[in-house]
Design goal:
The protein has 189 residues and is mostly helical. The protein has one domain (2-73, 80-188). 79% of the residues lie in helices and 0% in strands. The protein is built from seven helices and no strands. Helix 1 runs parallel beside helix 7. It is globular. 37% of the residues are buried.
């Protein structure tokens, strides 16, 4: 049963990324569908933060959908860049948030209030997927670089934990994110 939800989540996730690279506004409903399937699959494999992150993705999809639609169409919203200071700030916040979340998850595990088999990885993947999802909604080109890095980590993590559909997805995401970065970079010039 877990593999069915994982598989459907992967299919809709790939549709989402493909459409977002093309700046097609239909990427956002695809993300909502992907998040719904992934949420249940993560629940089944005991990764609570990944499950919770799917709520964030649904919210991001609604925000992105609104933001792209409010600009007249998805192409009208211009692709932008962040300064090095803003990157440093985002990465610092991400590292600090990962450490805090890992400590909290370890304490919850010890008290048997929540179970996660991989608190650090669960926290890291959670935080460093939220940051570029927000950036994609604002069409910040470096979001693709953030995705490449977290997708490498996630692909390896899910392979090691035998969630092979998710591992496949994240390794595919590396290629998609690379393509997305190149496509958006051509447009930003």
């Amino acid at each position: 049963m877990q593999n069915t939800y994982e598989f459907l989540g992967v299919v809709f996730s790939i549709i989402y990324v493909s459409l977002s690279i093309k700046q097609n506004i239909l990427c956002w409903p695809a993300l909502i569908a992907a998040a719904a399937f992934n949420m249940y699959a993560y629940y089944l494999i005991n990764l609570p933060l990944q499950m919770i992150m799917q709520f964030f993705f649904i919210g991001t999809a609604l925000y992105g959908w609104y933001n792209w639609k409010a600009s007249g169409n998805s192409i009208t919203l211009k692709i932008t860049r962040l300064t090095q200071q803003k990157h440093f700030k985002l990465i610092s916040i991400g590292i600090l948030a990962t450490i805090v979340i890992t400590i909290i998850l370890n304490q919850l595990n010890e008290r048997e209030l929540m179970t996660t088999s991989h608190p650090f990885s669960d926290g890291l993947i959670f935080v460093f997927n939220i940051i570029p999802m927000y950036m994609i909604g604002k069409k910040i080109i470096e979001s693709w670089i953030y995705f490449i890095l977290i997708d490498i980590y996630s692909g390896i993590f899910f392979y090691i934990t035998e969630a092979y559909f998710f591992s496949f997805l994240f390794f595919c995401y590396i290629a998609f994110a690379t393509y997305g970065y190149i496509a958006w970079k051509k447009e930003i010039k």
